[in-house]
Amino acid sequence: MTTFRALLAAAAVAAAASPAAAAVTVTLSNQGQPFTIPAGQELIATFDDANNPTETFVDGVTLSLNGATVGVCEGCSGYSGTLPNDNTHYLTIPGNASAKLTSLAGLKTFSFYMGSADTYNSIRFKGANGFDVTLNGGQFTQGYVGQSWSWGKRVNFDFGADRVTEVILSSSGNSFEVDSFAVTAVPEPATWAMMIMGFGVAGALLRRRQVALARA
């Protein structure tokens, strides 16, 4: 009996234990190619419209800025930074500012093009079941923290089986420059409902056709 009770207690402790540590896989790609996104992702934000800096292109995904602004394109009046080979507007996050991407249904992956990697930049990912991971400086640039204006790569984040609902980019220095956000998004419940309804309609039409053929 004592052994059985001990097993029950151990099981209870295991059930109450916190989930396994969340993980984010980071890869770098597309050196100097700001507008080439990974296969399977879709473009979510370009920041090209300076009058509408929070514009997004995927339903259910929104962007909010807390002190972050649209950087002036290279060569334009008021130019303040650089993203190699990027002659469009971009997102710039100065010290003590942030930008937050929110997804209602969750994200499988996320990527952006960035330049001038620095130690004072950070990215926080939050999701369901306590998923909460923050990466700082060289943790998302594979150790590179130089400030060379010729360094420009796409940074790719994969959340594995987890789904991220918030991506928060922030900086304690000047500045965190990024462009062309891309994601693999989970379909919203309404989208799933429409897909299922479509399958149902297709099935009904197929059955009706089969009945008509049988009667002919």
Main sheet makeup: 11 strands, antiparallel
Low-confidence stretches: 1-20, 190-199
**Rg:** 23 Å
Helix content: 10-25%
So what's the oligomer here? Answer: single chain
Helix-strand topology string: HEEEEEEEEEEEH
Structural class: alpha+beta
Q: Beta-sheet strand percentage?
A: 35-45%
At a glance:
The chain has helices spanning 2-16, 189-215; strands spanning 25-29, 42-45, 61-66, 69-71, 90-93, 97-115, 121-127, 132-136, 152-158, 164-171, 176-185. With 216 residues, it is an alpha+beta fold. The termini are far apart.
Explain what this protein looks like in three dimensions.
The protein has 216 residues and is an alpha+beta fold. It has helices at 2-16, 189-215, and strands at residues 25-29, 42-45, 61-66, 69-71, 90-93, 97-115, 121-127, 132-136, 152-158, 164-171, 176-185. Strands 1, 2, 3, 4, 5, 6, 7, 8, 9, 10 and 11 form an eleven-stranded antiparallel β-sheet that branches. It is globular and about 75 Å long. Mean pLDDT is 80; it is low at 1-20 and 190-199.
Note the topology.
Blueprint (H helix, E strand, L loop, with lengths): L1 H15 L8 E5 L12 E4 L15 E6 L2 E3 L18 E4 L3 E19 L5 E7 L4 E5 L15 E7 L5 E8 L4 E10 L3 H27 L1
Antiparallel strand pairs: 1-9, 2-11, 3-6, 4-5, 5-11, 6-9, 6-10, 6-11, 7-8, 7-10
Task: Give short descriptive properties of this protein.
216 residues; alpha+beta; 11 strands; disordered N terminus
